[in-house]
Sequence to fold (434 residues):
Amino acid sequence: MKKDFITMKQTLLTLLMLCSAVGVSAQYRPRPDAFPPVEEDYSTKAVTMATTVEEMADWDRYPTYETYLAMMSRWAETYPTLCHVDTIGTSVQNRLILSMYIEVQTDDDLYRPEFFYSSTIHGDEVTGYVMMLRLIDTLLSSYGSSPELTALVNSTRISINPLANPDGTYYRGNNTVQRARRANANGVDLNRNYPNPFAPAKAALAQENRAMMDYFEAHNFRLSANLHGGAEVMNYPWDSYTSAQNPHPEAAWWREVGRRFVDTVQSYSPTHFTDVQEADNGVVAGGDWYVITGGRQDYVNATYNCLEMTMEISVDKTLSSNRLPEYWHFLAPSFINYIKEIHNLPASVGIDPTQAPGYAAAGTLHIYPNPATDRVVVDGLVPGEKLWMYDMQGRLTGCYPSGAESTEIDIKKCPQGVYLLRTEGRQVKLVVER
Ligand SMILES: [Zn+2]
Fold:
């Protein structure tokens, strides 16, 4: 789950007493931060591992780390004109953080928006890991035979990172996901470690997150999702605020997208996505469930102009492996439909974190001249911070690492129009005249 658990021993009896004491309805599980949660009961789990690619054929096992690497290589070799493997980076223990980049090779320069799925930033929340592997396989193996999926791949660049925290997942070694753990090898909760876009202060970044941020900066993802387990709910931004404090500018759109996802799931399985009391039938603004800071979702939305939500897809963090096909059956249509949403994004652009309640200004960005034609000077940078430039369609047009308090950008190739220059937490509009 997005929320950090303090894993304390807690008997079921005590939990039930607390539930009745605070009047929690029996159909809902308690808020994870309401009182100490119980540890996941591994005595009820049947986790079978696949030690070869062939043993993944029925999708009812978890891959060993080596099997995972072999699957990714096998797809890249089998579908060389459809995909390649991106290495996002490495973990603390030097395991690979990979993404399957699915893109048709064509001669035209048609604009194809970039979509991103990422799972298992919490190492013990492994249902999404296998779901994303199976999604990769489905998209690649259906190309040319399924008109729906062929059209989707023809119109969209899709990057899928099945495992964002390999050291947490393989905490007990490369051959099991049993008793995996949430944090990375250094004990860092990676979904609390992103810079807070609503405050200038920066945390020391985990290696895995630095690599992921570089990956975002190198791409122009417009829509993404971060997959978790421990609950079943579509959690849309912000996590840092309640919707009353600071609603996301696209909150209405998020609710529609979440509704479509959950309604489709429930058309296959009506009981799923019903466990979070604060949600509207499986859809919730993150902060209305519980407020956190340092999560990936808020950082990505505020910094990269990318709409990202947190998908909590299974109450069991480590689902018994024989139940993985059942979950795929009711989740797969929604996973595919969510990718399609990228072709119908809301029109607005630019979220200004400095306008959020409680933001403490880090100083102002100054640009001159403005309007400009050939070059623009940006003053007021923090040495080392990066500067991004977007057009008014939200497309990244440039990324400029800055080693100083001032930098100069060549804009001769930019068409006339309005642009956004943005750092982590600050932005300013630039008018380019021709
Ligand atoms: Zn999680």
Summary: Confidence is low (pLDDT under 50) at residues 4-26, 30-38. Residues 48 and 61 are 5 Å apart (CA to CA). The pocket of zinc ion is lined by residues 1-2, 122, 125, 228, 230 (CB under 6 Å). The chain has two domains: 42-344, 362-432.
